[in-house]
Amino acid sequence: MNTVLQIGAGGVGGVVAHKLAMNRGVFTKIILASKTLSKVQKIAENIRKKGLGEIICENVNADDIAALVSLINKYKPTVVINVALPYQDLTIMQACLETKTHYIDTANYEHPDTAKFEYKEQWAFNPAYKEAQIFGLLGCGFDPGVTNIFCAYAQKHYFDEIYSIDILDCNAGDHGYAFATNFNPEINLREVSSKGKYWENGKWIETQPMEIMQVWPYPEIGEKDSYLLYHEELESLVKNIRGLRRIRFFMTFSQNYLNHMRCLQNIGMLRIDEIDHNGTKIIPIQFLKTLLPDPSSLAGRTKGKTNIGCYMQGTKNGIEKTIYIYNVCDHQDCYEEVNAQAISYTTGVPAMIGAKLICEGKWGTKVSGPGVFNMEELDPDPFMEELNAQGLPWQIIEK
Question: pTM for the whole thing?
C-alpha cells in the first residue's frame, strides 16, 4: 500500500501519472499537483476515461517550500516524484527533507538566471538526507536516467573497464510545425544554444555550440546528423564508470531546427536577462515560450521514432569489445497508450519505474542506504527488467 505524490503536470507529468495509474498494485493512492489546477484535472480526466481509476488533484506552488511541506504532510506519500521545472528541484528536495520523504526527479538543477545545469547544489543534500534516513534519486528520466542505467548495466555485465562512451539521442519524429521544441521550450533552447563540453583524459573540453557533428546510423531510423552537446549525466558518469577515458553526448537536429534557433539567438530572443519593453520588464526567452507550441500539443500529430542509447568501448578479461545498448520508441504508439509523444514518454516512464522500485524495496534505503544517488550508483538489473515490462524495451548489439 503506497501513496505517491507527483508534482508537475506538463507533457512528462501526463505520462508519469498514466503509468502510475497502470501500476495500481504498487501505487494505491496517486496525488497529482501543479500550480495550474486545470492541467492536473485534464490529466485526471484522461486517466478516468481510460478506466485507470481516480487521481487526487491538488494545487501547489513548487517554489513555496512551506506549501510543499503542507501538501506532503497532508498525504504522507512514500515518495515524491518531481516533474516540475528544473528550477524547482531545490525547493522540492528541501520539502522532502523537512518531511523525511523519499525524492525523485528527472533533470538536475538549473539556476533561472544562469544558462547551465550542474549537480553541485543537489549533491550538497547528501549529508542531510543520510541523517534523515531518506533516499534521493537524481535524473530518473531517459537522458539522464536510462542512459546512466545502460552504462551501469554494461559495467556490471560486459566490461571490466569502459574507456569510451558516446550517448546518442535521435528524435526522427515529424510534428508538422515550422518550428517547435519537444519539451519545455525555455529549457530546450537554453540547453541547445549553450556551448558544448565533453570529458577526455581527465579534463573537460569546451566547444562552440554545434561545433562538432558526426553522422550516426541509428537502428530502425537510418543515418542522421548528430551534434555534440553538454548533457547532465556526463557529470556523474565520469565519477562512477571505471576506466573511463572519454565520454560525449550527441543529439540529432534538423537543419530547419538549427536555422530557426540561430535566427532567434541572433536577434536576442534566447536572452535570459530582463529587458525593458514599453515600460514592462520581460525575459525574451520566456516571451518566446508563450509563442511556441506547447510540447504537449505535439502528441497525436507527431509521427516517427526516437532512438536513444549508449555506444561503449572497453575491455573484458583483457579483450577489447564494443556494446551498443539502445531503445527505439514510436511516437504514435505512445500517443495511443498515454496521449503523449515519445519524448515525454521516454522521460516519464523511467520516473515511474524509479518510484516503483523504491516502493517495492528493490532500491532505496534498505538496499543502498540513505542519501542522494545518481542512477548508475544503483543495481541496474531490476530497472532494466522494468523497462522491458513498462514499454521501453532495449536492444544490445555486441561486437
Answer: 0.92
